[in-house]
Design goal:
Helices cover about 5% and strands about 40% of the residues. By secondary structure, it is mainly beta. The protein is globular, with a radius of gyration of 16 Å. The two termini are about 30 Å apart.
Length: about 190
C-alpha cells in the first residue's frame, strides 16, 4: 500500500500519508496514483493541477470553493515549507454542516489531504516561502468561484491555536468574503 489513509472528523475528508523510500541518495514516493486512490476507496478523475507560492508566514488563503455545477474535489500537498490546511463542510443538510477539520501539511511530513466536492478549503502558512500543490477534478470556473470569510464565527476555525498571532495576510477577495449564512453556497446533501 503506497498510502496510509487516516479518517478525519468530516466524512469523506482524509489525510493521506505516503510510503516514502529513502537511502543515502535521498528519497522517493508516489504523490498520486489512480490505482492507489481506488484501493483506498477514493474514485476521482483529476483534470487540473495547480501550484501556488506564498512568500510570508501568516498568510491565509481561503475559505475557497467552487459552486455547482463546477464544484471541485482536491488532493492537496506542500512541497516546500509548511501550512495548516483545513476543510469545511458546506453541504446543507449534512450532520457536519459548518464544521471543519485540519492537519499540518509540510514538505517534511509529505502528508496530503483529500477534500471532496461540497467542502471549502483554506490554509495558513506556518513558514515563509511555501509552495503548495493541488489536483482538482473540475476545471477552474470564474463564474462559480466563491469564498467564505476566514474568521466566520459560525465555522469558528481556531487559527490562533495554529500560531496565528495577529491579523493574517489576506487577499482583497478573502478580506471581503461573505459569512457562510450570507453566501449563495449551493451544496446540498
Amino acid at each position: 500500500m503506497a498510502y496510509k489513509k487516516i479518517a478525519t472528523e468530516l466524512p469523506g475528508v482524509f489525510i493521506l500519508e505516503p510510503q516514502v523510500f529513502g537511502d543515502h541518495r535521498g528519497w522517493f514516493m508516489e504523490s498520486w496514483s489512480v490505482k492507489n486512490m481506488e484501493d483506498l476507496g477514493i474514485k476521482v478523475d483529476f483534470v487540473q493541477d495547480n501550484q501556488s507560492f506564498t512568500a510570508k508566514k501568516g498568510t491565509l488563503r481561503g475559505i475557497h470553493y467552487q459552486q455547482n455545477p463546477m464544484a471541485q474535489a482536491k488532493l492537496v500537498r506542500v512541497v516546500r515549507g509548511a501550512v495548516m490546511d483545513i476543510a469545511v463542510d458546506l453541504r446543507k443538510g449534512s450532520p457536519t454542516y459548518g464544521q471543519w477539520t485540519g492537519a499540518e501539511l509540510s514538505a517534511e511530513n509529505k502528508r496530503q489531504i483529500y477534500i471532496p466536492q461540497g467542502f471549502g478549503h483554506a490554509f495558513l502558512t506556518l513558514t515563509d516561502d511555501v509552495e503548495f500543490c493541488y489536483k482538482c477534478d473540475n476545471l477552474y470556473s470564474k463564474e462559480c468561484d466563491r469564498n467564505i470569510r476566514w474568521n466566520d464565527p459560525d465555522i469558528n476555525v481556531d487559527w490562533k491555536s495554529f500560531g496565528l498571532e495577529s491579523e493574517p495576510v489576506l487577499s482583497e477577495k478573502d478580506a471581503n468574503a461573505p459569512l457562510l449564512k450570507d453566501s449563495d453556497c449551493n451544496f446540498m446533501i
